[in-house]
Amino acid sequence: MRKKHKVYQSPTIRIQPMTKGLADPETSNNLQEQKNRFLKQGKTPVFVVAGDTSVVEELAAKTSGKIRFDLLGEAEYILRTVKREFRTGEAYLDQTYGPRISQDEANEILLEYISENNLQESLTVYWSNEMNCSARMIWKGYSFKCNKPEARRYSLWLNGTDENPYLRKFGLRCLMDHEIGTHFYRSYNDGFQPWFYDRKKFGLRGVGSFESLCTEEGLASINTLLRAKEKYLWLSALVYYTSCKSTEMNFKQLFDHLGQFLHNPEQRWKHVMRVKRGLIDSNDLGGYGKDQCYFEGAVAILRNIDNINFKLLMTGKICYDEVARVKRMARLGSVCLPAIMQDMESYRKQLKSIAILNGLFFEHPSHGPSQSYLLRLKERQSGIRKHKKLPAWCWPF
User: Fold this and answer.
1) pLDDT at residue 193 is higher than 50
2) Can you tell me whether residue 383 is helix, strand or coil?
3) Mean pLDDT taken over the chain
4) How far apart are CA 48 and CA 5, in angstroms?
5) What confidence tier does 393 reach under pLDDT thresholds 50, 70, 90?
6) Disulfide: which of 72, 211, 253, 396 matches 283 by Cβ 3.0-4.6 Å?
7) Of 254, 249, 250, 248, which Cα lies nearest the Cα of 268?
8) Bridge partners, 19 (sequence order)
9) Distances (CA, A) of 59 to 78, 287, 315, 371, 397
10) Rounded to the nearest 10 degrees, how much is the dihedral formed by the CA atoms of 127, 229, 272, 374?
């Protein structure tokens, strides 16, 4: 007999104490050990992945994992502008997201946010000290073919360490607009749509596609800025820039290079680690470019504001260029919107001001990968690694 699931008619919010983080194939089993080894002893990290090393190589070889350079000029412009105005990344974060807060203070803000958005679904919040990201929203429930949205269980995992740049007075609400205001609502609304169990039938891309990832994380990155005191795409630009520069530098060189934008060693470690985790040898050129989608998606959406119906975009896990396609079939009656999007006219105005502030309508210089990196990519793809000694300027040591 199939086990019956309780249907929640009212919010059931629980906040759990510190617990271990979520495991995934992109995560190293020895992050904390290697972090201490690098920061305290200066030794190059040697990551031990959760699964087979071939999984890491396959992830890095996918379209979403490849490092892209199309928006390097835009990213550099934002980084230079913020450096000129605030001098350091720490000063920018303090001004943008406010002072650091305790977990108890954060829990109060979380409950206020949940009340403000009038959430009607089961949600459990977990605090973790073992995450390689700031937060993650996940859900469990019925299979796609037996979809019952009311039976789903949602959980939000939050990084409780100093590596979380949003654990601040104003920053936590910004992070909630990212995780709940974007990821939760789009996932929740998607469950009521006719395309939920068969996207191909309606000509929509898969949820795991590169384009879908860009729209999802790009919209979330934009929404993260709406309540921020300063509205530069600085964090996502830094992530994009770090990925590009990883093709020229080894782990230590890249860590030192980022010091011009960010002094905090733990923050710099996180940025470099998330790129270099895509390599078997962290001293190799390149890395894992998946996180570039945050900046790519944000730029694409902000440059197409006038062509996007944002209510339709929130009907589910669809790409920004698929909005017109779902216009006639989307079930708008069951769509829920976060507080930040209740006034769509105001929302659009904010997005346009963000686009202008970040110089997205300027012409920026174009960049491409270095020849040394292209050569290294070719060697890796063919499974051949040349052992001759290369000059220090093109090969990490």
Assistant:
1) yes
2) coil
3) 86
4) 38
5) very low
6) 396
7) 254
8) 128
9) 29, 10, 29, 23, 25
10) 130
Task: Using the CB atoms, write b or e for 282-306: b if 16+ within 10 Å.
Answer: bbbbbbbbbbbbbbbbbbbbbeebe
Q: For residues 175 and 142, give the distance between their C-alpha atoms in angstroms, rounded to a whole number.
A: 28
Nearest one of 157, 173, 162 to 123, comparing CA atoms:
157
Q: What is the CA radius of gyration of the chain?
A: 21
Residues 6+ apart with CB under 8 A from 378: none
Residue 234 confidence (pLDDT): 98
Contact in structure between 168 and 99 (CB atoms under 8 Å): yes
Q: Confirm if 189 and 316 have CB atoms less than 8 A apart.
A: yes
| Residue 376 main-chain phi, psi, to 5 deg | -65, -40
Task: Identify the residue whose tokens are 């119906």.
Answer: 309
Answer whether 131's CB lies under 8 Å from 21's CB: yes
d(CA 332, CA 36): 50
| Dist CA 139 CA 124 (whole Å) | 10
Task: Quote the tokens at residue 232.
Answer: 């530069």
For 5, 152, 191, the CA distances from 2, given in Å and listed in that order, are: 9, 16, 21
- The three-point CA angle 101-106-108 to 5° equals 130
Strand (E) or helix (H) holding 31: helix 31-41
- Cα distances (Å, whole numbers) of residue 35 to 45, 164, 210, 256, 367: 7, 15, 30, 15, 32
Q: Which residues touch 14 (CB under 8 Å, ≥6 apart)?
A: 123, 124, 125
Contacts of 77 (CB under 8 A, 6+ apart): 358, 359, 362, 364
Quote the tokens at residue 240: 């994009």
The candidate with the shortest Cα–Cα distance to 145, out of 186, 204, 201, 213, is 201
To the question of pTM greater than 0.70 for the whole model, the response is yes
At 111, which amino acid appears? Answer: L
What pLDDT does 28 receive?
60
